[in-house]
Amino acid sequence: MRNLRDCLEQVCESQRHALQAELAEAVPIEIPPSPQALPELAPPLRRCPPRPTASQRWTKLAEEAVRRYQAGEGFKTVARALGLERKTVRRYVRAGGLPPRRRRLLPHPMEPYREGLWQRWREGCHKVADLHRHLVEQRGYTGTARTVERAVQPWRQLKEAVTVSGGAPAAISEPLRLPSPRRLAIELIRREPSAGFLKLQQCSPLLQKLRALACTLLTLVCERRAEALDDWLMEARASGVAKLVRFVEGLEQDLSAVRAALELPWSNGQAEDQINRLKAIKRQMYGRAGFELLRARVMPLQ
């Protein structure tokens, strides 16, 4: 299942542009309006735009790495020529360029004053100068009136919608945002994914296909249904996703061990844990200790 999650992360990273195109064509989610004219709780403020992402230098490096790889050079050769890590070059090639960074939206500077500002707004105080004066005198606000104006601008649209519709605000559309490839992979193999992922899944046939395959494999592993493994392998191979097909080929190379893990009650987890412990002790000594010292550290004293 860990290998499947890594495979799904690679698929989501390489197909990110296709997923963004599917979300762009989807209809924005309509949030039902409140039955009251104006809600008692303050609507959320618009967050500040994200900070600039990667510079032009990294964009050019990623494009050069993709060009060199497509020209026939290996990951190691490209990494040496550009002064990058081999894993970085591989990630650039999988994404077809510089992977898009997650846009981190900063909290609005008016967030600590939102509820008090909304109460004044509901009382009928809609002038920016009066709102700014109230925040300065009563709340110790030190910002400018321009910041207050930008904060209440969506509230003016809500007020106009209430006036036009006769007391019922119109539905608010919420755009869909694509999370990081790792978050998508985690959501794909979760038993109960989040509500946000379910909204994304409704708009993306690719996510629906990946989710169905991941759930099927998770079920047959948890229920130890070894007889259903061949059907899943055929279904995954017929999915047409290249990285998923490569994952299936890896399972088929060690198919007897995979079947034994589903059929037998034993596990090699204890042996793997001891191997990891031994490797950790060797790394602590930087590979300079002989066998006798390593044995003395691993084995209990007699």
End-to-end C-alpha gap:
41 Å
Q: In terms of structural class, how would the helical and strand content be classed? A: mainly alpha
Shape: elongated
Percentage of residues in DSSP E strands: under 5%
Kindly report the average pLDDT value: 80
Q: How many domains, in number, for the residues?
A: 4
Oligomer: single chain
Unreliable spans: 29-36, 167-173
Rg for CA atoms: 28 Å
- Biggest sheet, in brief? 2 strands, antiparallel
- Total beta strand runs: 2
Notes on the protein architecture:
- With 302 residues, the chain is mostly helical.
- It folds into 4 domains: 2-16 and 181-263, no CATH class; 36-49 and 105-171; 56-95; 271-298, no CATH class.
- The protein contains 16 helices and 2 strands.
- Strands 1-2 form a two-stranded antiparallel sheet.
- The relative contact order is 0.12.
